[in-house]
Amino acid sequence: MSAPLRTLAPKVQPMKVLIVDDTRLARQELRTLLAELADVECVGEADDVPAAQAAIEALQPDLVLLDIQMPSGTGFDVLEGLDHAPLVVFTTAYDHYAVQAFEANALDYLVKPVVPERLGAAIDRARVRRAATEPVDTDPRGLLGLDDQVFLRDGERCWFVALHEVSRIVVDGNYARVWFRDEKAMLARSLSALEARLDPALFFRANRNTLVNLRMVKNIDLAVGEGYDLTLKDGSTVEVSRRQARELRERLAL
Amino acid sequence: MMRTDVRFALLNLIPAVLYAGFIIMSFTMMGGPTAAAWWLACSLGAGLWLATGILRTVALRRNWFALGAGALLARLTASVVVGAFVVQFAVRVVIETADMLGFYRLPPSDTYGVREAVVYAVQVALILWLWVAAWAGWHLLRHRRQSEMARLRAESQSNALELDALRARLNPHFVFNALNNVRALINEEPGRAREVVTRLSNILRHALEHSQRESASLGEELAVVDDYLAVESVHYEERLKVHRDIARDALDAQLPPMLLQLLVENAIKHGIARTPGGGELGVSAWRLQGKLAIEVSNPGRVEHSGRGHGVGLAYLRARLAREPGSDFHLQQNGPRVLARLEIAQ
User: Fold this and answer.
1) Does the beta-carbon distance from A25 to B185 stay under 8 Å?
2) CATH topology of domain A2-132
């Protein structure tokens, strides 16, 4: 319904930008800079980690300008608490080495005082990325699509990972261990909380401990008993429990 | 024995074999090598190989290359002369022994006396000299390059230390945040922006100029801290409250420059900035039994491994090591962190 509207619209949808910084003057400065850019709308401000998380959930911005050091934590903590990571441009006065912990994939940072042209370029890049993931848009059930990205952290290293890059998610205590590309990282959430946000057509609960990305399945073999063994594209194997085997058959019959 | 010694011994076979080959060649031109010529060539080659090996070992062990040019030259010349006589004598011994044992017959024309010994020794000395010139030249070149590299390494190390110290005095995070705030203030409150620029200039000038000074009065140091806090309160606004309690008679007490500011900076960076809603920063100073006592306190907890925490305090401790009778400790005091500094007067 919204898709045809967009193609008919004469103007580009403005980028909805959220500013997160603990200093009022720094937020004010970014507002001033954003006001000079076309098709950009500042939808709100936040000054600390919990406020930022609440604002991202409530305002669903296209892009977050995210400060790194805040009173109760870092910009990374903000992202780690979210089911679905928005597009982010980090802003920092000096410690850009913190941002370099990121693997090369598509991450921007700006140093303060922000050069207006740099901000414009970062917004343009975010616009391109938004357009690339547009079709998913918001699922009516609030489920995440294949192009939606999650923020993952493992010690000093951080990643933005699109769900289609994830091969499986395994319970590890109160956390979930996510396997993606050739890496793995912890996600501070329970498997059932995660499952609730994932599209059941994409992710399948193979057994009590494991969610599998069905598009990453290479082979299905009959196992002893009535279960199956799934071989994933990354070479790992996952057992499908007897209880879930029937579910899998039904899913595949579709 | 080290790998370089083995490599040298192998490489050194080349001149020895070449020399032996040269002797065989000259005999060939004089009518074909005899068994005696082979013995002579091989023992001379081996003698040269051994003598140069020993010379190298002695020269390196005794560190001849660290000596002056004259001393080095004298030692090398003496070794060549001694080496030449020893080698030619040893060769003669080998040849005569082999003759006695009946491996071959020395030609009847062969004679050996003082004159022959000197002539042979001069020949060996010439060869040894060629060898020593090549080897010592190459060694000197390498020695010079290595000491150049050691000097550069030491220089870069001391530069890194200086840079660390400068960073400790002039926190770039603070400077860039201040500039960012000034840019916002220019629109919002131009008069205040001008004041912040003045304060910031004072701080920068002080940091650059006072880096060489050994001590400053507490009054001077407090003036910088005032500038610093004025800039920081633009950044933190109502989140930063300052409580000052300075005894009047402490103002002329002396202390190493920048240390007080470093403590105040840490109190903000690790206390005020990390506390939601901010809090109160306390600075107090007084005289105590011939010492100046300073306390800086902030809300928060003492951290031991926080990133960036180390540089400033390491600088402070290194600086205090040069102040006899000084003392510093950082302690948890309820919900606050208390840094206490004592400087002997």
Assistant:
1) yes
2) Rossmann fold (3.40.50)
